[in-house]
Input
Amino acid sequence: MGVKRWVGAWPVYRQLTGADRLGRGRAVQSRRSAGLGPRTADADRVADSVCPYCAVGCAQRVYVKDERVVQIEGNPDSPVSRGRLCPKGSASKQLVTGPQRERKVRYRPPYATEWQDLDLDVAMEMVADRVLDARRRGWQDTDASGRPLRRTLGFAGLGGATLDNEENYLIKKLFTALGAIQIENQARI
Output
């Protein structure tokens, strides 16, 4: 490559000698970046969603190509967030597509050193049995004076920041119906 050709390919040279003196356009664009396009341009469809991380409820646009999520961005039509997402919301594509995401039920029995795969129905039955057992063992029907309590101290509920408002609402209703009084959410702590 000749010196003249190399200097002409240098972005600073193009910036100083061309019309783009501030370096905000073509002067600083490489051949590679000139050929790039947004990941959202060739999406098959766009699904509206809500960020799963906190109780704000920022709207998201989920771009899907070949039935795979290719990008998640803020929805500018949202009156809540007006297209903006916090760092966690901006990285929510990882939550859906990350290689560390478990796609099957994993269980490690007490005192075991290895995880094992479980059928979803078996795991759900185990959870239900344990919740009902803890409720029964921790149940308080009345206090020492005979006043009705109808509650359990056998378990508590702690919602996570990856749950949306609707999921937290349903969890609160479920735990209240089961008699739990210790119900909290990570976003409030």
